[in-house]
């Protein structure tokens, strides 16, 4: 059943219900369904790949300016970055152990990058610099939470529950590099020119300094119904969503029956029946979907809150690790 069919049905069942408001109620019902259970269609897999450090050539920085000019060697290296594993505007710029700036633009003609804010440290000409990536956008805008982030090279599950304040206390200058052990919330992508504008972003700590691939497993919030042809995922029937939408619509009718000239009607009984239908259908669809979700999560479950905290050795791969830097 399409979104168009659903809202047409709802307006036909509930007298005087405005069609545009019917769309709103259906999406509210659909949101309730998504929030009240862990559904298989909300699970996702994805990848991050960290690029290596780039420090070829030199840069000229000016205090108070968001423009950084590079010499010919640096400009050639930056121009060769391309799209994989990330563009230059997805990476960060830094001088020494100073501020980490996001790169918002690159001008190959003038060999200049644009930072997300004015450079605050002292002006300097022809100095060493670093371009690398420490902040990563979530795989989708409606990201909800992580199940795990796995370093596929080093056989390590990163800690995804650490607060940023804990990282700030441990490494305020962000001087710990090499193999990341933590995924930390950062902020929304605020670059207006970015393809992931307003998506959630995360910091990898300690900062990756060479190419590493991460397997991402997590949960998303799910998408609203927008277009008339939009349909629900097969794991949830439209009868479940429509039952919840009917309850919301009858609640609206009860609250507005005087204005809609239905003073003698009592919609409370219909509200109760619709909610009973919703609870029954929700339980049925949830039970049908549960086995897949449980299997997915069991397969990825970590053995403790601090995975790979202690040293270990993989005899099959012939690889050893000293463990996480800290929890």
How widely separated are the two ends? 48 Å
Number of helices: 6
Query: What does the main sheet amount to?
Result: 7 strands, antiparallel
**Percentage of residues in DSSP E strands:** 25-35%
Number of strands: 18
Radius of gyration: 26 Å
Strand order of the largest sheet: 7-2-3-6-5-4-8
Order of helices and strands: HHEEEHEEEEEEEEHEEEEEHHEE
What is the mean pLDDT? 89
Low-confidence stretches: none
Shape: elongated
Tally of domains: 2
Percent helix, as a range, is 25-40%
Q: Would you tell me the structural class of the helices and strands? A: alpha+beta
Topology readout:
Blueprint: H1 3-13, H2 19-35, E1 43-50, E2 59-61, E3 67-70, H3 72-79, E4 92-94, E5 101-107, E6 112-115, E7 124-127, E8 130-132, E9 135-137, E10 143-151, E11 156-158, H4 164-170, E12 177-178, E13 182-188, E14 200-205, E15 207-208, E16 212-220, H5 238-256, H6 268-300, E17 312-314, E18 319-321
Parallel strand pairs: 12-15
Antiparallel strand pairs: 1-16, 2-3, 2-7, 3-6, 4-5, 4-8, 5-6, 9-14, 10-11, 10-16, 13-14, 17-18
């Amino acid at each position: 059943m399409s979104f168009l069919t659903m809202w047409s049905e709802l307006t036909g069942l509930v007298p005087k219900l405005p069609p545009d408001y019917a769309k709103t109620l259906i999406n509210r019902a659909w949101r309730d369904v998504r929030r009240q259970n862990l559904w298989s269609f909300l699970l996702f897999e994805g990848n991050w790949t960290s690029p290596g450090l780039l420090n070829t050539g030199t840069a000229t920085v000016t205090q108070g300016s968001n423009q950084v000019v590079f010499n010919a060697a640096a400009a050639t290296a930056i121009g060769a970055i391309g799209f994989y594993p990330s563009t230059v505007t997805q990476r960060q710029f830094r001088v020494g152990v100073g501020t980490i700036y996001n790169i918002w633009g690159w001008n190959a003609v003038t060999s200049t990058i644009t930072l997300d804010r004015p450079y605050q440290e002292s002006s300097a000409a022809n100095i060493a610099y670093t371009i690398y990536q420490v902040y990563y956008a979530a795989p989708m805008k409606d990201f909800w939470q992580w199940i795990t982030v796995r370093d596929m090279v080093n056989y390590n599950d990163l800690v995804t529950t650490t607060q940023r304040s804990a990282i700030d206390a441990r490494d305020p200058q962000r001087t710990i590099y090499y193999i990341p052990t933590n995924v930390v919330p950062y902020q929304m992508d605020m670059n207006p020119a970015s393809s992931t504008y307003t998506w959630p972003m995360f910091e990898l700590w300690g900062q990756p300094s060479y190419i590493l691939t991460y397997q991402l497993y997590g949960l998303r919030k799910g998408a609203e119904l927008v277009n008339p042809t939009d349909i629900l995922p097969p794991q949830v029937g439209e009868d479940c969503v429509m039952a919840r939408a009917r309850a919301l619509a009858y609640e609206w009718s009860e609250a507005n029956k005087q204005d809609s000239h239905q003073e003698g009607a009592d919609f409370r009984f219909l509200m109760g029946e619709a909610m009973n239908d919703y609870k029954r259908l929700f339980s049925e669809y949830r039970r049908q979907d549960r086995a897949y979700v449980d299997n997915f999560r069991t397969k990825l479950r970590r053995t403790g809150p601090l995975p790979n905290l202690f040293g270990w050795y993989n005899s099959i791969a012939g690889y050893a690790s000293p463990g996480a830097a800290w929890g």
